[in-house]
Write a structure and sequence with these properties.
Blueprint (H helix, E strand, L loop, with lengths): L14 H5 L1 H23 L4 H28 L8 H18 L9 H32 L3 H33 L7 H24 L14 H9 L2 H31 L7 H26 L1 H21 L3 H37 L4 H30 L11 H25 L25
Length: about 450
Amino acid sequence: MTQPATVTGPGRTPAWRYAIGMFGTSIPINMIKGSMILYYVDILGLDVRAYGAVMVIYAIIDALDNPLLGHLSDRTRTRFGRRRPWLLVGAPMLSACMIAFFSAPASLEGAGLVLWFAVFAILCEAFDSMLNANYGALLPELYPRERDRAVANSLRQGFQLVALVISLAVTPLLTTEVFGTERSTQGFQTTAIVYGAVALAVIVFMALSARERPRYATRERPRLLPSVWSIVRNPLFWTVGLTGACYGIAMALVLSGIQLYVRYSLGLPVVNALYLQGVVILVSAAGLVAWTRVVARRGALWTWRIAFAVLAVSFAGLFLATDLATGIAAGVLVGAGWSGMLATNDLIVARVLDVDASRNGEHREGLFLSAFGFFSRLNGVVTGLALTSLGLLFGYNSGTDPGADPGLAFRVYLCGYPFVLTAIGAIAARLITVPIETPPEAAEPAGGSAAERPR
């Protein structure tokens, strides 16, 4: 009896070996995004206006260097592949910069503190972009068929959620109880060192085991300007990118503000963020199995639309929470919607990459994903502007100048703004159609089942 082709056959990278890389890439950047406001604004006293200005500047720089990094990856030709060298260089650099980011000297204040924050925020985001452009580009290359991608993607999102439990839910416990206190910085530095070492080991393990397809790197090297022009003229780039940004920005606001939402809006010690974040992440992890089955039955596009709507509704419930119990109840719905987006959003992007490769004859996933990174760079701009708006609307400027009603301020930041964004995304997703373009290497083997119909 012949065995059906699977993603773990000879010459293929087992899905779990690829997926575990998401654990390593998620820990550093999510600790940074989840704790930077608490560390720099609330503890060190960085003014929110300076924070907002830095976020805008670094987002612009990051939007410009992302396509270049992706293009260089596409043009790389080594016996180790196109993506692995960049992963092996980016991992130690991101770990080192994260440690420095949470090691600001106690003597810094004013312009010196702003400069330290700006330099290491920009470096951390640049190396994170280097890692994720190359890691993400491996998904459509290693797993050409959507159903195989769905399995690999769900596994990697599962590893990401495990990383989030550690880097977000456990971090407040480590930084404020185990290694430090509510108002000290030592706990952040120690935690960053531990996380950096773990992330480095995992990323190196994944990179050394990934089996890239040699034929993807044997064609003519793509040129930068014609490739960029081709991408920006692709309508799917804009429609899918902007719609996905509504989800990405909303979750960036949640990740950056959850600890201060717990402190000010729920009136609880920051360590209680462990329970709220833990429930959201556990529900998201459990939901991946269910959402992946829905993808198999109804397709990624239909499932993506439903997940967007569920996520939008969940933020309304979170806005109304008044204590930890009601916050956790609303967090269950947030986790369900987030899980659906984790299971589908990258599959929609991968479809766009397939369409580009099929119609242009070039595999330039690195540049395309980095171009999509332009939309994720909006996260920094919007989160910076959103935080700045709290000073204008509610008088919250820093931990030493929180204004008259910081509780309402962070309800708007964590719930109000994300609700508006995801509602817009849910409406836009209903208007988008992304076809399935099956690459030749994804064709069913002789005697296999019929090709998957587009949906």
